[in-house]
UniProtKB/TrEMBL annotation:
Annotated SUPFAM superfamilies: Carbohydrate phosphatase (SSF56655)
UniProt keyword Magnesium, yes or no: yes
GO BP: inositol metabolic process; L-histidine biosynthetic process; signal transduction
Molecular function GO terms recorded: histidinol-phosphatase activity; inositol monophosphate 1-phosphatase activity; metal ion binding
PANTHER family: INOSITOL MONOPHOSPHATASE, INOSITOL-1-MONOPHOSPHATASE-RELATED
UniProt similarity note: Belongs to the inositol monophosphatase superfamily.
InterPro entries associated with the record: His_9_proposed, Inositol_monophosphatase-like
Designated name of the protein: Histidinol-phosphatase
Alphabetical UniProt keywords: Hydrolase, Magnesium, Metal-binding
Domain of life the protein comes from: Bacteria
Residues that bind Mg(2+): 73, 89, 91-92, 216
Length: 266
């Protein structure tokens, strides 16, 4: 396990989030976003704000943590020699960003060979920051700062369930999600990373998604686990590589949801 200074990692994560706030807010709800489509088929947007925010974060890392590796969504992987990797997504929820909704966020994680050890979910426009790991589980927003704590157990029949896209993933994955949604009290869509933040805040019971990348989920894993929640894949295995993910407020509702989803192969 690599040696690290926890205080410096936390301070660096905040510096990254501050840099990304400035870069993203310079473009949010602007008349021209410079949107490009990265997908050969379908629609996978990237904006000038995505690229500028990631570049700003990488500049902070180059100055403060030059020996660490960097894995980001928009720019090339940077190899390191410290044993630590910064996993960053400058705008998780670019479609929401394009539409002016304040549910996108900046995702920042620090990982070692076991997975994420520190995570930040930051929503620049409403000024909310969720930090988890290395002894922290903290929410800071316009009303002040308080500890993060996921919800206590309740039956799946009383749970709130979130995902980003109604189709979830493949048709088979969509059917599994639909079966879970039929068992939950409330299902909501389109919140991107903000839904994971709400799990850590104690407002939401479950987030279930498929087709994620590591930069989509590593920060939420660290934040939710620090708040007392559970994040795995649909078979109960580690999820920091992405793919099919279930984030739960507690082990009881996680177990109920997992029983419904676990029948999907792979």
């Amino acid at each position: 396990m690599p040696h690290f200074d926890a205080e410096d990692l936390i301070a660096t994560a905040h510096a990254l989030a501050d840099a990304a706030r400035a870069a993203t807010l310079a473009h949010f709800r602007a008349a021209a976003l410079g949107v490009e489509n990265k997908a050969a088929a379908g629609f996978d947007p990237v904006t000038l704000a995505d690229r500028e925010a990631e570049a700003a974060m990488r500049a902070v890392l180059a100055a403060r943590r030059p020996d660490d590796a960097i894995l980001g969504e928009e720019l090339d992987h940077v190899a390191g020699r410290s044993g630590l990797t910064w996993v960053i997504d400058p705008i998780d929820g670019t479609r929401g960003f394009m539409c002016g909704t304040p549910t996108w966020g900046v995702l920042i994680a620090v990982s070692d060979e076991t997975g994420p050890i520190l995570g930040v979910i930051d929503q620049p426009y409403i000024g909310e920051r969720f930090v988890g790991g290395l002894g922290l589980a903290e929410f800071a927003g316009p009303a002040g700062t308080r500890p993060l704590a996921a919800r206590a157990p309740r039956p799946l029949a009383e749970a709130s369930l979130f995902t980003t896209f109604p189709e979830v993933g493949t048709p088979e994955e969509g059917r599994a999600f639909a079966a879970l949604a039929q068992r939950a009290r409330l299902t909501r869509y389109g919140m991107d990373c903000y839904a994971y933040a709400l799990v850590a805040l104690g407002q939401v019971d479950l987030v279930v998604e498929a087709g994620l990348n590591s930069y989509d989920i590593q920060a939420p894993i660290a934040v939710i686990e620090a708040a007392g929640g559970v994040v795995t894949d649909w078979q109960g295995r580690p999820a920091h590589g992405g793919g099919r993910v279930i984030a739960a407020a507690n082990r009881a509702v996680h177990a109920e949801a997992l029983e419904v989803l676990a029948g999907v192969e792979g």
